Amino acid sequence: MDKLFFSPALALHIGCGFILVAVGLAPILSRKGSRLHRTSGRVFVGLMSVLLAAAWVMTALHFNAYFAALSATATMTVFSGARVLKRKRPDLDPRQRATALDWVVTLGVLTIGAWVLVLVVQGRTGNKAAVSAALVYACFTYGAWDLWRFIRPTAWPFSPNLWTYEHLVKMLSAYGAVISAFSGNFLTFLPTPWSQLWPTLLFQPMAVIWIAVLAARRRHAWSPA
What we know:
The chain is mainly α.
């Protein structure tokens, strides 16, 4: 079974990961809404989908709590970050609200995250306890947010621009997960768990600052002359 599935899945996972380290920069650096941004974004989501499919195959064959936590968080952010583009204006179009697919994936990933957290509490994650717990809490944060948005799609803090901020935060987090895995495996001169945690410490504040800048620009654009 390992020879038939695990080794090809590992090769596919590593190959996609290397490509994504470079490809993921294009949507970040390109002008938002441009053809390059949309095309590179689709490529990023497609490659992430292949990478995560391979990751779940490997997790099923050889379970590892850290790998499961990383895969769960990355799945949540990639899936939700892409799906929110179909839920831009739930106030105007009821079809732009959560579907059964959104509920199933979100609840499924949260269940896996809860299982990993139990393993962390039981001390069954070895030297990856800190980073595994951090990933699970991130998964819970995104999942809880999405569940609230599914239940009350037009309630606070909804605004016509909310989808932009959600997309930005989640896709940056997905790219951060790629960098986290890359750093943990190849930047071995960094001490554990910082070799896996530094991308989160970089990309999450970056997302907050980016959102603040966008919000300030929009307020300025709408302010009276």
